[in-house]
Amino acid sequence: MEITQTTPTPESTTGQTSSLAGLAENFDNFLTILTTQLQHQDPLDPLDSNEFTSQLVQFTGVEQQVLQNQNLESLIALQEQNQAVGAVDYIGKTIEAAGNTNMLVGGEAIFSYLLPESAEAAALQVFDASGGLVFQQDVNTAAGVHDIAWDGTTIQGGIAPDGVYSFKVTALDAEEQNIDVTHRIVGRVTGISFEDGKTVLGIGEVGVPLDVITGVQDAPEDAEQSEQG
Fold it and tell me: Domain residues for 62?
């Protein structure tokens, strides 16, 4: 994943320029009309200066709004750029985040879930990109956070190809009532992007917004050594 351009887009810059140009043209026309009216006004019935003053104030107000929008967009672009620079530190680190989608890479994917209380029964289901059930198994029923390492084995006994998979953990209490399970994903950050003004960390093809991250860990030493080798 790539860091997208954080400077104002050509479309927004063009819009600001044309707004200022249109305002300047209208203001010039206003001054021309005002000068002409003053030159031809009836000395016995002069024009109302309050009306012209009001129009001048309106022009000034519009000009200030356009300039404020320009400054605001510049500040937003600067903030996004600062976020991008800071987010670079996440690359190579293992993050934990809210979500139910993760990458299967090299026959390994980590799914994580949180049980707020002990369950009578709990089961994991893994789905492919089209929503088809790929794998299922019973999982830990104790209260707390649990990580599941899936090796890509399918319910047919084959091996699923690397890619994006979603998962769901269903848990029931002693009265066979559903327990609210929190789904979490764990993975190593491989890239950064911006989407709709938000910083998004990439675990392979899975995008994780920065504001849903719940934990960060240093990359395992063996992973760092393999990258250096």
Answer: 10-90
Of 56, 90, 124, which residue is a domain's last?
Answer: 90
CA atoms within 13 A on the CB side of 95: 26
Is residue 65 within a helix (H) or strand (E), and if so which, with residue range?
helix 49-87
Pair 86, 102 in one domain: no
At residue 113, does pLDDT exceed 50? yes
Q: Tally the C-alpha atoms within 13 A of residue 91's C-alpha that lie toward its C-beta.
A: 13
Q: State which H helix or E strand residue 163 sits in.
A: strand 163-172
- Which of 109, 99, 118 lies closest to 171, judged by CA? 118
Question: What predicted TM-score, i.e. pTM, was given to this entire model?
Answer: 0.56
CA dist 215 and 146 (Å) reads: 15
Domain end, chosen from 45, 75, 90, is at 90
Most confident range, picked from 42-51, 103-112, 121-130, 185-194:
121-130
Q: Which of 52, 61, 45 is nearest to 31 (CA)?
A: 52
C-alpha 71: how far from chain center: 23
* Alpha-carbon distances, residue 67 vs 24, 77, 178 (angstroms): 13, 15, 55
- Residue 171 tokens read as 């848990």
Query: Can you give the CATH number for the domain in which 218 is found?
Result: 2.60.40.4070
